[in-house]
Amino acid sequence: MFKAFSLIELLVITSIILILTALILPNYRLGDKNLALQRSASKLSQDLRMAQEMAMSAKEVSGAVPDGFGIYFDISSPFSYILFADKDNSHARNAGDADLETISLESNIIISNLSPASSFSVLFVPPDPTVWISGLSSGTAGRITLSIKNELTNKIISANNAGLIYIE
Description:
The protein has a single domain (9-167), classed as minor pseudopilin epsh domain (minor pseudopilin epsh fold). 30% of the residues lie in helices and 34% in strands. It is built from one helix and nine strands. The strands form two sheets. A five-stranded antiparallel sheet has the order 3-2-1-5-6, covered by helices on one side. Strands 4-7-8-9 form a four-stranded antiparallel sheet, covered by helices on one side.
């Protein structure tokens, strides 16, 4: 005697698999986006630390040691930020500075909010390094809000004048 599955048993198993797939797939996509947001927030905080380390190590740019290294944020450029060297001791990014790298965020991740202004820089000046945020060396903190495009999920990266950088 042959043992096999009946047509009804096969249809029941197939429908159970389809229902489970329909329930799991949307959550998988959301988890993927949340992971991209977390990676972007971690990368941004690491890039801030890298600028701080470049300032402390007196890294040379074009054969000279600049007055500091920083990262510039602009809400009108929500998909990237700029690593720069302060060559004119202005304590903020301007035309006299050297842009070292434009760093792009992951796909569907944007800079949705900036504080204290819609564009500002976080600059590390050696030897301490002193931290200049939006041109001020004390009493202020920079907050960069990263979000998933067209969604409410976000991560806030904060940096203060004491050099503390953290993800909220």
